[in-house]
Amino acid sequence: MKFLLSLVTLTALSILISGCGNNNQGAGDTRVRVVATTGMVGDAVRMIAGDKVDLTVMMGAGVDPHLYKATKGDIDHLNDADVIFYNGLHLEAKLTDVFKKMASVKTVVAVGDLIDSTQLRFPAGAEGHPDPHIWFDLILWRQAVSRVSEVLAAEDPVHADLYRANGKAYDDSLAALGDWVTAQIATIPEEHRVLVTAHDAFEYFGRRYGLDVRGLQGISTVTEAGLHDITSMVDFLSEHGIKAVFVESSVPRNTLEAVVGGCQEKGHDVTIGGQLYSDAMGRAGTPDGTFLGMVRHNVNTIVQALR
After folding, report:
1. Where in the sequence is the domain holding 294, given as residue range(s)?
2. Are 201 and 248 in contact (CB under 8 A)?
3. Which stretches does DSSP call E strand in the chain?
4. N or C: which end of the chain has fewer CB within 10 A?
5. Together in a domain, 256 and 294
6. Mind listing the pLDDT tens digit for each residue in 35-74?
7. Residues 164, 24 share a domain
8. Are residues 143 and 127 in the same domain?
9. Which tens digits make up the pLDDT trace of 144-201?
10. What would you measure as the largest C-alpha separation in the chain, in angstroms?
11. Distance from chain centroid for Cα 36
12. How far apart are CA 110 and CA 117, in angstroms?
């Protein structure tokens, strides 16, 4: 019996039992069907599995996972999937209960659950939920995606050696990238290592690589920044002489532009140092549309603006 999903309200999903599902694979295609929620998770699967699996990534460029609601197409893919990978840690808040229920009938993996909870951040005001933005600490991200190859090997033993070899190569790439990030951030003068962004997505990054990170909004984008948040940020930037702030590809930039305008009114010249990728990668088919390329873009943008 397969579980069919249906939208029951504008913000919630429930699971209904049915005797059949939609099969979107072509005739004769026996590849394992995998669904990944975010681009970051999907890219890890793609690097490890290549074309040996039928991969669907639910959230594309510029999509905010905090606010994401499943489409009819997503529901079909989730029903048909053999394996579902998601970030977890309450990132895909509106889908968490669905994934937990589907775990009783298929392989469902929250990669964030593989990280030791003592290494997670639990910000004030987050209602007890951990900060889910684990991919910006490359050591944590290596832990998070460490089981992808073994999960795929169990589902598709014929290609198990390939998955394990690719998993090792991907881990090596992440380790090398982490070393590069450390070296690049070290070129920023210590007094300039202050990263101000639209929402609080970069605390793991700052903790690992030595930046003071300030987000205009909290770890989730559900609640918008208010006048008090904007005024406080204007005061902080002016008092500390911070010269650049950064917008994000998946978060509206209007509130951060208000901060820039407020600084100008106080006589402090601050600029938008560039656009960072936070909760979503760049467009597919571009360097920024890969996880490694996304991180390189962010670091190059930050270093150029703050150095």
Report:
1. 183-306
2. yes
3. 2-7, 13-18, 32-36, 53-57, 83-86, 107-110, 194-199, 212-217, 244-248, 271-276
4. N
5. yes
6. 999 999 999 999 999 999 999 999 999 898 988 988 899 9
7. yes
8. yes
9. 999 999 999 999 999 999 999 999 999 999 999 999 999 999 999 999 999 999 878 8
10. 67
11. 11
12. 14
pLDDT band at 26 (very low <50, low <70, confident <90, very high): low
CATH of the domain at 193: 3.40.50.1980
- Characterize the bridge pairing of strands 53-57 and 13-18: unpaired
**Which of these, 97, 204, 111, 92, lies nearest to 152 by C-alpha position?**
111
Q: What is the mean pLDDT of residues 95-104?
A: 91
93, 77, 89: which is closest to 36 by C-alpha? Answer: 77
The residue type of 128 is G
At residue 69, what is the residue type? Answer: K
Exposure string over 204-229, b if 16+ CB within 10 A, otherwise e:
bbbbbbebebbbbbbbbbeeebeeeb
